[in-house]
Design goal:
single chain; disordered C terminus; mainly alpha
Amino acid sequence: MSRDRASEQLEVLLARAHKQLGIAVYDGLMSSGGPPELRDPDQTLGRLLAAAHRQAGDAVVGRLARTGRRAPRERAVADRERPSEGLLMRRPAFVRLKYREQALNCARRYWPLDAVRVIRDAVDTVQQLIADLEEEILPDTARDQLLRVSSGMGRVLALPQPDHVPQPALGGFDYMEEVEDFLATCTLRLVAETRRSKQLLDNELLLHFRWPEMSWLGALEVSQDLADDLDLAYREALALSTAVTAVEEASTDFRGADLQSVELNGVDLEGIRWDTTTNWPPEWKERIWRTSLAASTGHGELVVGAEPRDSTVPVDI
């Protein structure tokens, strides 16, 4: 049985139980002449049943609302999971080299922490909580672990967010605008999904840990919803990580590039990957060879080092 099918059956069962409970409450109260004339024990029972009825109704409505809001987001994430990292590599090599340092600084600004690791830790923690709730056995550290997860998500929410995503001019984005748009769009989506997850954690799940008698079923349902939201946040974190890697790759990979007419004075070349098909300006060839080291890929790649070396790289590399 698929997960969507199981979820639909659960919603049908919850709605049916809610309706039947409402009928039972109404019949029980009316058969006793109505609430004002009930004896104390019956009145207490009636109030408990009415409260259970309201809580069941709220739970069903809330769960259906969250599911309804999540479905379009899941489709949007799936639609975006297409290769886009090659867009920057299509830009001319001399442009990527000219703005190399600016692009790398921009990537570091949008990736000050490993958001993938933070969200993955949150996913693992909530999945373990679900397993514990299903067994109705919680460790004493469960609440502290959730508070740690909330703190980690707070760090993700502190990622830089532009006031507005740049819009392309008639001629399209220039290179740095495209880099900024690429990273900013991914960051905004990650922050939005993380904020939803953190609100569900702080405003609903952690509340269950404040009550003397925990509602195991209630906490389990919220935990499952949180796990679904965190899954979307994790996919957005992976998308941002891929975007950062794409910017770094476009700023580093110059294999086969024609750079003969590029002015290299003042350009930071350290870390650039190149090979024997890369065309350097004639006056820079010897210096580049003396500065480079063989890469560890074993495919004839070289990496420009920081300082000139005493020996050159073998010509037959």
